[in-house]
């Protein structure tokens, strides 16, 4: 059988992920849309691995076995199934540059996040997305990657990220005031599912870790100045 056949059949409907996705989509009251969403998430969790890049949607659905899938690939597959199996009108959605809400978790249990505190060996404090993809139908936003359904397009966003000018893409900030945090890109530190890994730096850590150019960029940032962090 193909992945598509197994998804439609609800092959993994007894899994925890299937139940979590069904509940997020409205439970049994969510009808065929909720069931198909849960079937998709249940199959994804049991059969696929999350990666920043994956195979094409049609190829994955037509085949079987383990595959690498990105959130964009997951969205395209779910949209295709919604349209062809349920005749739904579906639109693509995305959000950019944010820290994910901590309550959301990836369908792939190996993927814990890509943000950690400086000096710690784990990166499960948060998940940072450059781009994140999901879809909308019937006024609800379905996110198979994070096993969630949102009422608004901003559903997965915990905190927005802004680049620090002069940081050459290596420095971002999140939050405001005394809760402002600095995210610093780490090189050659891969974690499951992500190409980029980030550490959270406190002001004192910035002075120890950053080179002169990046340190000056942090000191010159208006939000950092207003917060009195440096």
Give a summary of the structure in a few sentences.
This protein is α+β, with helices and mostly antiparallel strands and 230 residues long.
Largest sheet properties: 9 strands, mixed
Question: Per the principal axes of the C-alpha atoms, what is the gross shape?
Answer: elongated
Q: What is the percent of helical residues?
A: 25-40%
Summed over residues and divided by their number, the pLDDT gives a mean of 93
Number of strands: 11
Number of alpha- plus pi-helical segments: 8
Category by helix and strand content: alpha+beta
Helix and strand pattern:
HHHEHEHEEEEEEEEEHHH
Taken as a percent bin, the fraction of beta residues is 25-35%
Number of domains: 1
Keywords for this entry:
single chain; 230 residues; alpha+beta; nine-stranded mixed sheet; two-stranded parallel sheet; 8 helices; 25% strand; elongated
Notes on the structure:
The chain is an alpha+beta fold and 230 residues long. The chain has one domain (3-227). It is built from eight helices and eleven strands. The protein has a nine-stranded mixed sheet with strand order 4-11-10-9-8-3-5-6-7. It has a two-stranded parallel ribbon with strand order 1-2. Helix 3 (31-47) packs antiparallel against helix 5 (71-86). The mean pLDDT is 93.
What are the SSEs and their pairings?
Layout: H1 3-9, H2 16-24, H3 31-47, E1 48-50, H4 57-62, E2 67-69, H5 71-86, E3 91-100, E4 115-117, E5 128-137, E6 140-143, E7 148-150, E8 157-163, E9 171-174, E10 181-186, E11 197-201, H6 203-209, H7 212-220, H8 222-227
Parallel strand pairs: 1-2, 4-11
Antiparallel strand pairs: 3-5, 3-8, 5-6, 6-7, 8-9, 9-10, 10-11
